[in-house]
């Protein structure tokens, strides 16, 4: 029998289905080539009959089970016999003691309540208020004493700093020193203006107070509380005055710190100007200048360090002058040695002469062996003994003893010819 595809060769649907079937077969073959043939479905595992094992477990449990009391069976289960329980006398003693304590406390409280009175309660309140007032009075007394201590310490610091400020004048920055001097004056003026509050007399309970009178005790309570309010106001005043003193000292300390910070700069200027001094003097000045701000940073004012600084600067300056003098002396000696090595002797021709007949030509024959140190004061003592050859017959009147006035050419004046 022919298929529909054979009968209807032009049926597109039939041809498409055939193509899809062929494609599926080709795809299955390709898949098998890639991953292998499909796995064969395995059969389900065979179950093992465990009925015999279950029966054995039940039988074993039945053999090991304890006997069970069946409801309705005759007789109650027998309980084990226990011995006679002894009395715990320790616990009994504690219980009796606790009951006794409670009873005593109750009786005492009842007695106190029976004897209590309003006056006694007021007296206890008065005692509490008096204790609080005493604490407040001690606090303001301590604050007032602290103010006095701060004022005394500030005055002492001002007195100790003032000589140091005078000693360093001319050695440090003058504007900073002047500001410190003004700070000392301001500190003293501020301390003079401080007025601590007046302290009241310490409280004391009146000796004639009737502690059994409720009215008197209540009035005394009012007095104590009024004084407590006044003490609170005084405490604020003490705190304010103390703040003023602290502010004055802080301003003074800040000015001193600003002055101390200028010492290293001043030392550098001194070292630069007097740098020919020995290194030990330079190091001493540098260390003294650095010690001032270091002492102030440690909590002091650096008074001792300031006082020691001027003497070290003076020593630096003196050693610088000594070094300069030595340098100048060495240079002068070098110049003299150079002159001595290059200089010759002076020549003293000696021109003095004389004759009895005039026209004498006699001269000083000194070759001039003076090494050059003679300033030219040789008087030229050779009188010139060569007789004149002139025609004059009269004796020469000028003996030729005029000393030479030119340096190194001393000699007598040329003799004049004698007159015939």
UniProtKB/TrEMBL annotation:
Task: Report whether Amino-acid biosynthesis shows up as a keyword of the record.
Answer: no
Which parts of the chain are coiled coil? none
Ordered alphabetically, the record's keywords are: Membrane, Transmembrane, Transmembrane helix
- Protein name, UniProt field: DUF5667 domain-containing protein
- Which stretches are transmembrane? 89-111
Asked whether the UniProt record includes Amino-acid biosynthesis among its keywords, one would answer no
Region of interest called Disordered, as start-end residue ranges on this chain: 334-420
| Composition bias type Gly residues, residue spans | 342-365, 387-397, 407-420
Q: Where is the composition biased (Low complexity)?
A: 366-386
Organism expressing this protein natively: Microbacterium oleivorans
């Amino acid at each position: 029998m022919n298929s529909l595809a054979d009968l209807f060769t032009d049926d597109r649907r039939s041809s498409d289905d055939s193509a899809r079937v062929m494609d599926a077969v080709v795809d299955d073959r390709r898949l098998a080539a890639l991953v292998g043939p499909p796995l064969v479905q395995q059969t389900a595992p065979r179950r093992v009959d465990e009925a015999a094992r279950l029966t054995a477990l039940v039988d074993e449990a039945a053999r090991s089970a304890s006997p069970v009391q069946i409801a309705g069976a005759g007789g109650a289960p027998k309980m084990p016999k226990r011995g006679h329980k002894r009395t715990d006398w320790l616990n009994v003693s504690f219980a009796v003691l606790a009951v006794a304590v409670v009873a005593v406390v109750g009786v005492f409280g009842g007695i106190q309540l029976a004897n209590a009175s309003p006056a006694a309660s007021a007296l206890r309140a008065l005692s509490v208020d008096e204790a609080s007032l005493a604490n407040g009075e001690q606090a303001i007394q301590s604050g007032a004493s602290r103010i006095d201590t701060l004022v005394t310490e500030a005055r002492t610091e001002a007195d100790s700093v003032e000589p140091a400020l005078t000693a360093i004048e001319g050695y440090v920055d003058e504007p900073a020193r002047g500001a410190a001097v003004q700070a000392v004056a301001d500190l003293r003026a501020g301390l003079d203006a401080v007025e601590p509050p007046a302290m009241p007399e310490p409280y004391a309970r009146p000796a004639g107070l009737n502690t059994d009178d409720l009215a008197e005790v209540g009035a005394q309570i009012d007095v104590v509380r009024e004084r407590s309010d006044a003490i609170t106001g005084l405490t604020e005043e003490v705190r304010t005055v103390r703040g003023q003193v602290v502010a004055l000292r802080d301003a003074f300390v800040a000015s001193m710190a600003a002055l101390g910070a200028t010492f290293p700069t001043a030392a550098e200027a001194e070292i630069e100007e007097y740098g020919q001094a020995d290194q030990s003097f330079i190091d001493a000045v540098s260390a003294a200048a650095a010690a001032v701000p270091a002492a102030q940073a440690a909590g002091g004012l650096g008074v001792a360090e300031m006082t020691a600084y001027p003497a070290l600067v003076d020593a630096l300056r003196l050693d610088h002058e000594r070094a300069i003098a030595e340098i100048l002396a060495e240079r002068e000696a070098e110049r003299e040695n150079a002159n001595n090595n290059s200089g010759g002797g002076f020549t003293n021709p000696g021109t003095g002469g004389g004759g009895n007949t005039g026209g004498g030509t006699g001269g000083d024959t000194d070759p001039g062996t003076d090494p050059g140190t003679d300033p030219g004061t040789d008087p030229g003592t050779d009188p010139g003994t060569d007789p004149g050859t002139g025609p004059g017959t009269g004796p020469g009147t000028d003996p030729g003893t005029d000393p030479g006035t030119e340096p190194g050419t001393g000699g007598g004046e040329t003799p004049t010819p004698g007159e015939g």
